[in-house]
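yo

u said u wanted the structure for the complex thing, so here. seqs first:
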Amino acid sequence: MTIQTLLSQPFAGQRPGTSGLRKKVTAFTQPLYLENFVQALFDELNASTADGQALTGQTLVLGGDGRFFNRTAVQIILKLAAANGFARVLLGQGGILSTPAVSAVIRRHQAFGGIVLSASHNPGGPDGDFGIKYNAGNGGPATETLTEAVYLRTQSLCQLRISDAPDLSLDLMGVQPLEQMQVEVIDSVADYAAVMRELFDFDMLRGMFAKGFSARVDAMNAVGGPYAKAILEGELGAPSGTVVNATPLEDFGGLHPDPNPVNAEDLIACMSAPGAPEFGAAMDGDADRNMVVGRNFVVTPSDSLALMTAYARLIPGYSAGLSGVARSMPTSCAADRVAKALGIDCFETPTGWKFFGNLLDAGRITLCGEESYGTGSNHVREKDGLWAVLFWLSLQGATGRSVEELVRDHWQTYGRNYYSRHDYEAIAVDVANALMSDLRSALPGLPGQRFGARSVVLADDFAYTDPVDASVSKKQGIRLIFDDGARVIFRLSGTGTEGATLRVYLERYEADPALQDVPVQQALAELVAVAEQVAGIHARTGMAAPTVAT
Ligand code: G16
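structre next:
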């Protein structure tokens, strides 16, 4: 085996979005496409030290969600890593690691960084999506500064270094040499499970299941299955069959592994049927997202973060209290109210988990979450689906309250933030860009303008100054904030692979318990009309209704 230098050429469009580079599988399978991106990443990382040898002798963590092309991509990356100086790769068995598990392994083994192969909640299979993301030594997604620098390198890269060694076994546990590098195939679950044991009272959870507590956790044929099986059924004694769709499949069995009420319809149906389990949850392709469901009752992700913040002290890992909490800007303000009551900071960041990293590293926050079905804490630097499941199970165990009772109690105490996100998918890119640019131009005229009973008090394009490193991120979403605190927000998704997706986020606050049980879309109908009036979505896109409203 020898290390080869191959001539390559730039590929257009290798700019990472909200969470890494996501493209159709057909893009990733072009000759040298993946190699080009990874070499640009390695070159950029090497350039971070004066001698240009930052990777020499280092450990890399590698794994993915098992989707189509995962195994091929792992072989390619191993050969690039060997040719670029790494001494060791910790590889999840079968090339499998959930996104939070990559973060846990990086942190527990003090690795230099890690590569996650996933397009998250996007569909898989030969016609589906693939993705790659770099996580740094803190276990968290690379900063925007790094991803942008990598992108610039992809646009001028003309050669790469790769080993011509034969493929390795991805399934055989133990160490295999590749050039000077050692590839160690590790148990995909062990490190992650160890972190969970440190946070939650496993004895109490075991006791709950022993007394007959019933749950249904839908892994959506994705990577969360082995983790949920090992921890819930294996360690905590939940009955076999508690975890469904538990085997990761290359095409997710045709499911769209996005845990929302639309795509996890089977879970919703099951939780609404007579004799439904007491608790339901679903996770996404790479197991970092979660949806929590009670009997006939779906928990909004924004409410989930607020409740976790309110009850965190009941969980052993957070019994000392929280240093602070953070949410992405479009996430509802429900957590803000709890933070205020607790006297802790609440930060508002742009969409993207990478923006929580500095706050977590600096100890400014303990919990964080997003409307996009993501919640997490300082235990890793990714959002974490199974962690959220264990958190909610623990809350039920500690309080004796059902999911619905917990949420309704919360609304009584803090008020309810009615919340919905409307997605308009696969819009022509120029139509979406024109809509956003016209909205931007209209911003100065909006403050003071009345829409029914409300008037606009703030209209801007959200900009964020990181409180830790003072970096500034502009154009993070158009906000209309009204005099009663209601908000309408417009952004374009940074994770799609087909055309553009317009996201409209709608929120209003209701303090009166007697008015907290209105169907969500009805409660937000006036704001939907405002969004239409301001942005002209129907006329511009030809779409009379969103593709998905959650
Ligand atoms: C990613 C990011 C999240 C973000 C979500 C939606 O999640 O990690 O921080 O909220 O995308 O982003 P967008 O609205 O730009 O599509 P995941 O689970 O897809 O990695």
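The domain at 192-414 is CATH 3.40.120.10 (Alpha-D-Glucose-1,6-Bisphosphate; Chain A, domain 3). Residues 324 and 345 are 5 Å apart (CA to CA).
cya
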